[in-house]
Batch of 3 targets.
Target 1
Amino acid sequence: MMLKKYNNQYSKLTRTFMEKLTEANPDSNMIFSSYSLIMLLGVAAHATDGIGANDIAHHLGISRRTLDARFREMTGST
């Protein structure tokens, strides 16, 4: 019973997301599944658990200062 309840919520979320996305991009063809959208949101929500900017810089083999500078160049913010 619980799975059906959540499945309906996932479908509603996917439908709303797709409606908003297609309104913003009327000339695009898009296909989404409820489960892939929820999986993506789950990954995004937990993607940085315990990871900080210093860890990312170390993994990339650059200094934290260089990472910050590149981030500013790409986003225009800190």
Note: Helices lie at 2-24, 34-46, 53-60, 64-75.
Target 2
Amino acid sequence: MGYTDGTIHLWDSKSYEHKTSVKAHEVSEPLWASGVQALAFSPDGQRMISYGSGYSVRIWDLSPGRLIPVRSIPFGAL
């Protein structure tokens, strides 16, 4: 789940156990447009893409129990 405070929290879908969290995006004004705006997962569940404040896109490697940032794509680069 992504939150307006810029964090992403991963939960185990079977046990509902909190696995990890990371500060992924900055907080800005207005708050409703801040933090993490969207998350998407690859079909194999190995990667995640987050979209957040400042039009930033980040690609994450989902290793067991942690998030590893792979790449940040700045606004206008797509």
Note: The chain is about 0% helix and 50% strand.
Target 3
Amino acid sequence: MRMARGRRLTVLLAGDAMLAKRWRAHGAHVRQRDARRGRAVAGAGLTSMPVHSREEALRARSLEADLVFISPLHSTRSH
């Protein structure tokens, strides 16, 4: 984090919004299903979410994501 701050970079920690907060990251990159459960977003700073379809983009918007990463629309090993 020191190096990132020294270079004035924005840091988002993947997966766990509360850990991002403890690390003093600028925010978290979270899955939409975690945000729906309330484990993400609250008080974590910036929130980004992956989207793979128009429906997920609309859902990210309704969950008030600050930004989205548009991922491949084809199958991958993880999903």
Note: DSSP finds four helices and four strands in the chain.
